[in-house]
């Protein structure tokens, strides 16, 4: 009986060893951070022409909301916001670039969906910008709400999700409408500018860019409502939990700084604050970088070199930018928006 038990135990041990040997090892969760430190820069996948989010000028200088987030990531990890390389990606190749380790983080104004989060080897990190389908209309039409658009002609891309959202929204409210469709966005903008339709529909951030480029942009307004959800934010590879946490808490640091009233102008003065949460955030009373594998002053460096969430928003998408978007859903939760930072402690 004893011999039988010993043989059974030995068989189990051997079987477990075979399984362990034959099963591919999971990627080291810290490997991306190690690779970033070794090469000395973060590689961010972005869209080349996404106004307000990522755009490159003739001299090769990048700007936009996504670009500044990548700068914040570099500041927190490497202590230098300029330690970033940007890889321009198309809609068709961006997730493959992430899977193939060509980029450390995927920006590119990429919306969070179930399919992307489960089937592409990618993990959505956090909503950094709440976008959605809106409408732009000439001010002289005296229309102030989407609910006043019954009977309107609407310029929209053929076969797009915008088209189906219109059908759902207007149909459920028994509102009449006529679609003016094209497969080319530029053609739709021209049709709208020439009075060929009552309103133009698309993501609110895109419509703000259209308004900024119209010869008489001040004579057009964005209606206040959005009729669907387009949560945008960074993606990282699945299976890299430590890297996921670094990207997530970089975003949280930007929002927390705004909540604390810390910005790039006063961050050094705020070191004298008696508020414990602020002193912890700045690395004075606790080393909150250690659990992330980052320097003690990672959050301080982010704010000092890049700013807080509000600063980034205002100069890339808000009133300090050509788009002049209101904060809306992207305001702090204390001001009627959806943005808030989980406790950094």
Features:
five-stranded mixed beta sheet; alpha/beta; 2 domains; 345 residues; D-Maltodextrin-Binding Protein, domain 2; single chain; three-stranded parallel beta sheet; disordered N terminus; globular
Report on the structure:
Residues 1-29 have low confidence and may be disordered. The relative contact order is 0.14. The chain is of the alpha/beta class and 345 residues long. Helix 3 packs across helix 9 and helix 3 (65-78) runs antiparallel to helix 11. The protein has 2 domains: 31-130 and 232-335, D-Maltodextrin-Binding Protein, domain 2 (3-Layer(aba) Sandwich); 133-228, Periplasmic binding protein-like II (D-Maltodextrin-Binding Protein, domain 2, 3-Layer(aba) Sandwich). Strands 11-10-12-9-13 form a 5-stranded mixed sheet. Strands 5-1-6 form a 3-stranded parallel sheet. The protein has a 3-stranded antiparallel sheet with strand order 2-3-4. The protein has 12 helices and 15 strands.
């Amino acid at each position: 009986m004893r011999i039988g038990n010993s043989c059974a135990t030995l068989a189990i041990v051997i079987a477990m060893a075979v399984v362990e040997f034959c099963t591919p090892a999971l990627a080291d969760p810290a490997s991306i951070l190690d690779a970033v430190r070794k090469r000395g820069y973060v590689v961010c996948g972005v869209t080349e022409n996404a106004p307000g989010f990522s755009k490159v000028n003739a001299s090769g200088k990048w700007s936009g909301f996504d670009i500044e987030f990548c700068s914040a990531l570099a500041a927190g990890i490497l202590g230098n916001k300029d330690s970033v390389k940007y890889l321009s990606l198309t809609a068709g190749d961006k997730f493959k670039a992430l899977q193939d380790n060509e980029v450390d983080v995927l920006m590119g104004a990429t919306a969070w969906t179930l399919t992307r989060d489960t089937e592409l080897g990618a993990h959505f990190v956090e909503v950094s910008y709440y976008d959605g389908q809106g409408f732009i209309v000439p001010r002289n039409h005296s229309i102030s709400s989407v609910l006043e658009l019954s009977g309107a002609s609407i310029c929209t891309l053929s076969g797009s999700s915008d088209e189906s959202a219109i059908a759902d929204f207007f149909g459920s409210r028994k509102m009449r409408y006529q679609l003016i469709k094209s497969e080319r966005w530029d053609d739709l903008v021209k049709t709208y500018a020439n009075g060929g339709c009552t309103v133009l529909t698309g993501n609110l951030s895109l419509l703000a860019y259209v308004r900024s480029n119209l010869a008489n942009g001040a004579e057009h307004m964005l209606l206040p409502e959005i009729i669907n959800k387009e949560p945008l934010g960074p993606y990282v590879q699945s299976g890299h939990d430590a890297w996921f946490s670094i990207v997530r808490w970089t975003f949280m640091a930007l929002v927390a700084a705004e909540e604390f009233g810390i910005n790039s102008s006063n961050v050094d003065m705020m070191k004298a604050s008696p508020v414990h949460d602020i002193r912890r955030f700045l690395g004075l009373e606790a080393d909150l970088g250690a659990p992330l594998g980052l320097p003690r002053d990672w959050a301080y460096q982010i704010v000092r070199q890049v700013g807080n969430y509000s600063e980034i928003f205002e100069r890339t998408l808000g009133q300090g930018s050509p788009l002049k978007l209101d904060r809306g859903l992207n305001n702090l939760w204390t001001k009627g928006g959806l943005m808030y930072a989980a406790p950094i402690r």
